[in-house]
Amino acid sequence: MESKNTKRKITEMVEYILTWLCYGDAQAASRVAYTADVQALDSHDVMIVPNNHLGNSIIMPDFSPVKTEHPSEGKTIIRTDIVYNTFFFISRAEETFNTERDEHNRFAARFSVLGNNHRLLTPMLDEHAHLLLEALGIPLPTPGFQHIFLTHDIDFIARYRYLRGILGGLIHGKWQQMKASWKDIQKDPFYTFPWMTEQDALVPNAQVIYFVKQTRGKGYDYPQYNLSGKDFGQLKKRLLDSGAQLGVHSSYYGDLPKNPLSTLHRAHYLCGSVRQWQKLSKADYTDDFTMGFADAAGFRLQTTRAVRWINPFTMRLTRLTMHPLIIMDTTLSDEKYMNLSEEDAFNMCQRLINSVRKYRGDLCLLWHNSSFTPDTYHKTLYGKIIQLLNGK
Q1: What is the mean pLDDT of the chain?
Q2: Structural domains in the chain plus CATH codes
Q3: Which residues, other chains included, contact 250 with Cβ-Cβ below 8 Å and sequence gap of 6+?
Q4: 255-275: per-residue pLDDT in tens?
């Protein structure tokens, strides 16, 4: 028997999901019944038949074409449980029972029911939302972007300002680059911030966020730049003067800073997990931008739109908003991941950007300042994407 508290949490969760599927239109959502009782159509226009698993065991989502019936004019029965499908993906429920992880203890695309195929490239929940709006006779949202988030993780401020970088420079004979960096950090190959701020400013109404490491550098968190030092102080001023926001880039090991710079968060190496999202939702963080796979671009949440996280352990709707991370630079180019050529990477970006535009979602991109070096194609690729977003 379900307790009253469990029933209340599930009711709250279902109401939220229905409103979210209706693009925030609570009045439209009130016309939808989530029940197997066909008499609900006496007072509702759409009935979604549950599969009886919300609040019980976790099962796989239904990827088959959505089954609908029209018993009378203006009435629709949806026999595919699109509410459960939504819960499954926005809660990341599969990560609670699938224990496969990669070398960085991340849940990778290749372990997911989405896999590295067309499912990851198609936002199924947004398809569900459009189907529901059509059943309700509501016009679909005008194509476009609800928000554009141009985000950047600052893993390194400079290449030759820490021991490992200096040793690498010595080994590879980068004397001139090292000398230039020591004299002026803006001459360092990783100090690409002036160009980045210029490019991002070309996209009207884009929200630019730089995620900053605040925890003590160790292991994969190394190197840790000095947040109180001159170099970071000058950089921080430059970024804030450009209109950018600062976010928290939490530790590879899951540590959160005691005094966070902001309530915006992204995990280092995209090492997000259900356990970490629990920690974030209990703390004062409001927004997480980790929600993408490192090994494959696409829709890990199966939506282009921001959504509040549902804790799959407690079935509780939290205050933490998850922002789908659609594309990361190294995902496209790294030989361990997609290993795409510049042309194929741009075609992939165009496809995903067009999907976000179609469903009037939030476009969230991640490029590191350390990626815009002459030995990669990312400076050219990012410039093309900026032109695409600027309508040129």
Answers
A1: 92
A2: 4-135 (no CATH), 147-389 (3.20.20.370)
A3: 214, 215, 256, 257, 265, 266, 267, 268, 276
A4: 999 899 999 999 999 999 999
